[in-house]
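Hey Z.,

So I finally got round to the farnesyl diphosphate thing we talked about over coffee. Here's the setup:
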Amino acid sequence: MRQGRARTVRHPRHVAIIMDGNGRWARARGLPRSMGHRRGVEAVRAAVRAAGELGIEYLTLFAFSSENWRRPKDEIEELLGLLKHFIRRDLADLHKEGVRVRVIGGRDDLSADIRSLLEEAENLTRDNSRQTLVIAFNYGARDEVARAVKRIAEKFAAGEVTLDALTADYLGEHMDTAGIPDPDLIIRTSGELRLSNFLLWQAAYSEFVFMPCLWPDFDRQSFEDAIAEYASRDRRFGGLSREIAS
Ligand code: FPP
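And the result:
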């Protein structure tokens, strides 16, 4: 994955994607939903490659939400199987390309084989620095906040922290995303206009781009279009617009 373009102020450092529309993509072709998810994995590979080429330092992908357990059992099995297959097949290549893998989401209720695969991916790639791929798996933002509060409560109970230290920054340091900058840009495909319990804390100042295309159709051009839309926005972070301030 080459850094094809220098990052500018208007270039996002961290892009997070809600990959939506696999089922509709399959239905439109008279195919089973599983085919949509399989094509979705191809789009994942293309997006990771494109992010590297476009100089995106952090790419977060919403692969499986804490609410996705409500889906039919066979679809859950398919999604878990695809994740396992992706890590087994692609991990060596990702490592070779200098990609660091981070996983956010609850681990405790995952099966031992998935937990150890996720740990293997993180451990093997932990010193890579070219690009970070954050996989949100069994992830829900409210769960994440609860996990962070629990971690802090444990430190508090152990006398390791005082009430005065409990700032927003301190809470951020206990989220699953500790050490990862907040997303500059959040993309959602398939035309849905929701955040769906994704990165609620980290999205405080993110720009949103909602695209009509279904996830399996998301390609390099779609990625570039979303970045161009981001570049046209005036990010103020509560301050004044560029025009007024200058
Ligand atoms: C939404 O489509 C997509 C998902 C629930 C999961 C996304 C998963 C993948 C792309 C494959 C696995 C990921 C990795 C990282 C290997 P949907 O099923 O909600 O589509 P619909 O709204 O059209 O029914």
